[in-house]
Write a sequence for this structure.
């Protein structure tokens, strides 16, 4: 009998339709880790909204959590649809699948504004540097000087999704590599638990149009140049677990978890503060200059209010469950508003 989680579901309950993406596509690996994260977080698929735009990555929601409601929107316009969906029922979790073209080309304006509004949304950019669905044209994240057989040489400087998110005041910013399944899963789990926008830039190689060894979006380059800023594991919020005194840098300590299992921790020597936005920008820029693919949780801010909190929506009721008389202002209030306009 298949093992179940705390809400009585098996891993198979988080699957979607069979994938139609190319064999070896990094997007498939990301989809697998989204399903694993949802299973381990005990999420009910019916309580998760899925949003996407247009592109190979935006097809992905079809391939995970088939029991969830989803909306495949216009190219680059997914954030607006997600905002409307979460205002309809803010009690639900939401995940958005986008690509580098959908986000950093046609959708850049929507991307920047959904960030500054701090919508509680897991926003994943499956970043492969090309328009894979329309035969491999360069996207805005393709590196300067990249040569592709059918496109020639890229003459433009690339857009860095992480730097754009940091500059736009995102409250959770991370980067990973589709070939690092364990890290992707832990970052998705942490993103689902963040109250605000969670931007995950995941380098996801396109095996058909952009997997040349020298490409910064290829499997070979990513594996050779990847550097983790910290070893990252996410534990859902329960009673606090603390380590013993004297846990020094470079030392090892065994910790008992809530389920009785044992976890061995090693404190890394590298000192990185994910709460410092300016240092995060500096660290990413330094890594880019050294041709290093920096991965991990790059920045997080737990103090900023989400868009739902800013509008003081009720905790226990969704707007789409309220009756018309509850949502419509009374005539006296409308008269007062109209009077103030003259």
């Amino acid at each position: 009998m298949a093992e179940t989680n705390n809400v009585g579901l098996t891993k198979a309950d988080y699957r979607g339709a069979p994938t139609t993406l190319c064999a070896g596509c990094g997007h498939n690996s990301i989809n697998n880790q989204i399903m694993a994260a949802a299973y381990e977080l005990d999420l009910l698929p019916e309580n998760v909204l899925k949003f996407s735009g247009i592109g190979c990555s935006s097809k992905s929601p079809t391939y995970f959590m088939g029991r969830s409601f989803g909306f495949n929107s216009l190219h680059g316009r997914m954030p607006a649809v997600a905002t409307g969906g979460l205002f309809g029922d803010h009690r639900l979790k939401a995940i958005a699948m986008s690509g580098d073209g959908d986000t950093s080309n046609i959708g850049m304006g929507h991307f920047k504004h959904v960030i500054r509004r701090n919508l509680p949304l897991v926003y994943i950019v499956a970043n492969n540097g090309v328009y894979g669905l329309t035969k491999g044209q360069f996207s805005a994240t393709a590196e300067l000087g990249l040569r592709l057989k059918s496109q020639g040489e890229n003459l433009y400087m690339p857009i860095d999704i992480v730097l754009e998110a940091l500059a736009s005041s995102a409250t959770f910013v991370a980067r990973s590599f589709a070939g690092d399944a364990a890290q992707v899963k832990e970052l998705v789990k942490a993103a689902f638990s963040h109250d605000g926008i969670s931007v995950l830039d995941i380098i996801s190689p396109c095996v058909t149009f952009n997997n040349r060894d020298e490409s910064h979006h290829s499997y070979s380059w990513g594996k050779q140049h990847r550097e983790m800023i910290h070893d990252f594991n996410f534990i859902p919020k329960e009673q606090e677990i603390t380590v013993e005194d004297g846990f020094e840098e470079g030392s090892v300590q065994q910790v008992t978890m809530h389920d009785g299992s044992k976890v061995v921790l090693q404190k890394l020597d590298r000192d990185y503060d994910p709460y410092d936005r300016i240092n995060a920008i500096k660290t990413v820029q330094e890594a880019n200059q050294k041709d290093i693919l920096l991965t991990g949780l790059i920045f997080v801010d737990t103090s900023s209010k989400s868009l739902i909190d800013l509008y003081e929506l009720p905790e226990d009721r969704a707007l789409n469950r309220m009756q018309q008389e509850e949502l419509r202002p009374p005539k006296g209030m409308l008269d007062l508003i109209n009077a103030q306009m003259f």
Observations:
- The chain is about 30% helix and 20% strand.
